[in-house]
Each structure stands twice: as C-alpha cells, then as structure tokens.
Amino acid sequence: MRRYAPLVLTLALTWPAFTAAQEPQEVKVFIGSMFEIGELEGDRAGEFQAWYEDYLSEAEPREVPGAANPVWCNDEGVCGSILGMGKVASSSSMMAILLDPALDFSNAYFLMTGVAGTPPDKGTIGAVSWATWLVDYDLGHRWAADEVPEGEPLFMPRDGYEDIRVYELNPDLVDHAVELSSNVELTDSQDAQSYRERYPQETARRAPFVFTGTHMTGDTFFHGPGLSKQAQYMTELYGADDYVITEMEAAAIAQVVDRLHGTDRLLSLRGAVNFDQGHPDETTLEHLDPAPGETAGGFAETIENIHAVGAAFVEEVVNNWDQWREGSPKN
C-alpha cells in the first residue's frame, strides 16, 4: 500500500477541484477534433477552431489529467476538446475526459470530426462523410506482395480482435444526421476545382457533397491504389459498407466510448482534403510528397464544410433536447 501512496497523493492534488456536493454538468454533445494549427481564434483554422468560435469561446478551459488539451463546455451542454492525432493520443485523451467526475456523459452524443482522405471513385476534395462503419486498418497480419502469388490478398485478420476491429454505428442516428445535412450548402474553391480535373473518375470531379460509408482508421498514412484496394478488401472481409474515408482516430475512440457508454450515440464526421492516391500522371511518392503548387487545395473550404454539416446536428440536438435526451427520435 505504501508504494502507491505518492501516486494517490499526486492524483488528488492535480485533479481539477470537484466535490461530491457539486452536480456534474450534463453533456449534450461532445465534439472531439484531432488537431489545431495555431491559435483557437482568428488565424488559419485547423479542425477545432470553428467549433471553438461558434460554441465555446466564452467557456473556461478545464484541465483534465491525461487529456492532451483542456475541455471547454458552454452553458447549453456543448463540450469539446482537441484530442490529439493518431489512435493512442486521441483514445487516451477521450478516456481521460470520459472519467472526469465534473462531466456527466450519461446521455451525451459524441461527434468526432476532422479532415481525411478519400478514394477518387468514392469522394472528392471538400466532400463530407458520415461514417456508417468504423474499421481498424491494423489488428491483423500483412506481408509484401512478392511473397505470395500475384493477386492474392496481402492482409489477414488476427483472431481475438473481433469485438474491436469493426464498429457499425447506429443506423438510425446516422440516417438522422444525413437528413439534417441534406439542405446544408457546401463551399468550394477554384483551386480544388482545378485539382479535381487531374483525375479521370467522375466522382473525383464532382463539387463537394455529403456521403456515407466506412471510415478506415489507421496510424499508417497509406497512399496509392494498391493500399486503397486493400482497405476496400478489408471492409468486404468484415461485412462493412464500402471504404470511403481514411483517417487515424475514429475506431480507437469508438472502442473507448464503447467501454463506458456504448456506441449508439457516436458519430464520425470527416471532410476529404486529399485523395488516397495520385492521378494518372504522378507516382504514389509524388502524390504523398507533392512539389510546390501540386497540393490539392480546398483545405479551408473543407474545414468550413465539416463545421456546417456537423453544426446542423449539434443545433438540432441542443435546441430539441427534450426529444433527444432519451435517444435519437428516429430510434
């Protein structure tokens, strides 16, 4: 017992002041973004700035031990934080926040938001996707293409991860979120339009739109048609919807939320700022590390689109909390 006493004392001293006499704040919507570029206001926006400016600029930051950044909560029950990039950083922050005794997540909706990549036959720059499934890109075995007959799979799932490698999100909640997005006007840019023309796929050339499908979570920032096909193969292997988004956090965050609250109120919203492979006139390496002037463009517009689409959901929940508190009205 004695050897653990310093740790207990440290936690007692560093945990934000909170007593049993205080009622924890009821969280209606928690918004989790993964990174910010600079300041929280007034400069080039990363994933969190628009949420902060719109909902949280008047809130006091709350330091949470174990979280990468503070949590902000407004008086309407909207909370948010920058969780960190990658599976470990984001999920460990999420667990710390969920265990904060000052916040009551019993009825909360979780909106995970950020930028991502998309295959050019499924999405386009500036498009925004609600996940129907989350799949972990890892948790299996991989090998080099020259070690098996040509055309054979290069990935095999490993036993023991069946409950955490794939999550089907609540279809009724996703449908409701898509419905709320249907009248949201998305922005575009000339730079993004010009970049799209380099791709032959009809979908890649489209103006931004809202779409659904599987979001693939992996710390590996994979690029190229071969790995894109492998991601699609994995979704088929797991019985999920088509792979449409590559990102680095959502499946890991889902595992954390699932342990404490289940995933019925979890949504993943991503905007495409790049394609997961090059156009016919560039190699995969050139696409991964583009020369000046060869980037996709449309980052700021995508950030704006993510916020516009997600805010339609946040506003609906907060403004009609009596209907949403017990669950999605479509359930």
From TrEMBL:
Any GO BP annotation: transmembrane transport
Signal peptide (UniProt feature, chain positions): 1-20
Alphabetized InterPro entries for the sequence: Nucleoside_phosphorylase_sf, Pur_nuclsid_perm
Source organism per UniProt: Roseivivax halodurans JCM 10272
Record's protein name: Purine nucleoside permease
UniProt KW keywords: Signal
GO MF annotation, one: catalytic activity
Top-rank taxon, per record: Bacteria
A Pfam family that the UniProt record links to this protein: NUP
